[in-house]
Design goal:
With 197 residues, this protein is an all-alpha fold. It has nine helices and no strands.
């Protein structure tokens, strides 16, 4: 798993992990339910830009994070275009990319341990019905942290195909799925070896 946290003194770095998780959930919900037109989708991207600025990150970091989501955007857009108009596909893809970018910003400004602690506290009432809050929190934290890992796999596939002079096609998606599933198996084996899974 890639540790994305970058130390800093911005307001987002100083904010409590629990508050940032709530903010992420609220923003993701608002973007998912509200940004259904091109102007509102553009506003969602603007919210992401403002959030990155509050995190103390400049245009270069924003551009790198946006570039890292390109294959997610391509995959979502391609599947959306099968059923929806180009305009709706762009709007839906923009919403997905915005939420992924916000999740990436959370990992950039919050230590994984702090995220796990915040999730465990929030989920502690589930202990009454036999659910282990630590395991649920760990799973959610792991999910958030693995988003950039998949993006890195996509970048490797792109570089490998470019080096061979091969154009990107449907095989790239299959390769990405295989690499992601293999990585998931490796993570599961590592967790089992440590007695976590």
């Amino acid at each position: 798993m890639i540790a994305l946290y970058r130390p800093g003194t911005s307001p987002l770095h100083r904010g409590r992990a629990g508050f940032k998780l709530i903010a992420l959930a609220v923003l993701a919900l608002l973007i998912s339910l509200g940004a259904r037109t091109p102007p509102l989708a553009a506003a969602a991207i603007l919210v992401v830009v403002v959030a990155f600025t509050c995190g103390g990150f400049g245009p270069a970091t924003f551009a790198r994070q946006l570039w890292a989501t390109r294959w997610i955007a391509v995959f979502v857009a391609a599947t959306q275009l099968i059923f929806l108009s180009p305009s709706d596909a762009v709007v839906n893809t923009t919403r997905v990319v915005s939420v992924v970018m916000l999740a990436g910003l959370l990992t950039l400004t919050t230590r994984t341990g702090d995220l796990l602690d915040a999730l465990q506290r929030a989920l502690s009432p589930l202990r009454r019905i036999g659910i282990d809050p630590w395991r649920v929190g760990f799973t959610l934290t792991l999910t958030i942290a693995l988003v950039p890992v998949v993006a890195d796999f996509a970048a490797r596939i792109r570089d490998a195909q470019r080096a061979r002079g091969v154009r990107l096609g449907p095989r790239a998606i299959v390769t990405l799925l295989v690499m992601s599933l293999r990585h998931a198996d490796d993570v599961a084996d590592a967790l089992s070896a440590r007695g976590i899974a």
